[in-house]
Amino acid sequence: MTAAAATQMKAPAGLSNKAREMMEAINAEAAKHHVWVRTQANAPAQRPWFSQTSGEGGGELASGRVAAAQLKTLPHLWRWKEFRPYLQRISEIARKADVSPIEFADRQSILLLNPGLKGRLQVTNTIRCAISIYNPGDVAPVHLHSPNASRTILSDKGGYTVVEGERCEAARGDLILTPNGTWHDHGNDSDEPVIWIDMLDWPLLEFLDIAWVDHDMPGAQGNTRVQPTTKSDGYSRRLYARGGMMPTFVDHQLGVGGSPAPLIHYRGADVQETLHDLRKEKGDPYEGIKIDFVNPVTGKPVFTTLNYSAQLLRPGEETELKRETAGTFYVVIEGSGVTEVGGQRFDWARNDIFVVPNFLWRRHINTGKNDAVIYSVSDAALLKNVGHYFAQGRAKDGTVTELVQ
Ligand SMILES: [Fe+2]
Q: 144: CA distance to ligand 1 center in Å?
């Protein structure tokens, strides 16, 4: 029985046909008191996704007043060959500018907009992604913020980030973390522009209205206001990056954030070596050879909100279908392939970026002749912390397996 039918049955004679109309009329008056009289049934944002296993669907918007302003992340691919020219153009403008964009806009960057999220500066429900270009000599002054952030380096080399006094020299495939509450500044003292991807949990903190930035670091130096470098390149890697061993003489707390990961620089070369050393293992039928970046002290994801991973797909490898309650953002580091998402097909190559929204079935295929390496960021960490992370797999015969329930 529908809610409307139930209302009709319970309504006193004479009022049943008019009840809704009369309540809507009250709404005209109630609006000025910021009140809404319920005249519709609940319209949840999501159908029971776990029991509807056959279709490619998902991503459908609910309708009605209860679901007003609801948005859904859509699958999308941003191609390097399409977004790179924008970076080159702003780099060129910056080179000739009397006042550089980095001064009036904070950064020289483009932000990726998920087409389902109506122009909001976000690629999934929780993740913001900017792609920044730093010309030789550019400096982003020291600051600290409540969102967690990271840099994934696309350029072969050049550029640096200083985090809580540790200088991290950037190279391709590096992941450099700036956990919430850590002072950091960036720059490029090489001869060539450098490009990297910034990813943040900003939309989540914005939703909670707890996003803030502090630019006034005590002791910041010079016109460009940077922090003193007190720890050389590789400091946190020397402490934590050899696996299974942890120093006993340092405080693992970094900055003023709640639970920052003390290892802040994961090198692309180490990621490649680890993945390639594992490439003869069987791997995961849904992911291939996959590794997670973890906080070395806790073994948990590097942020409480986002987790970062890297995976290798061997030539010809086709994963099985999987879907999660988490939304995932991918960056192609090397190789080429296809990801099928909710019935759509996305062909990707080096430096392309794509989004797999929550709830949609997806699978990856390495269509190239060489290994493919893709990095990913998702809000699975957050969902695990709040008890909402679930995942399913689907075999070719349609059999569905609960992977995490
Ligand atoms: Fe920042």
A: 6
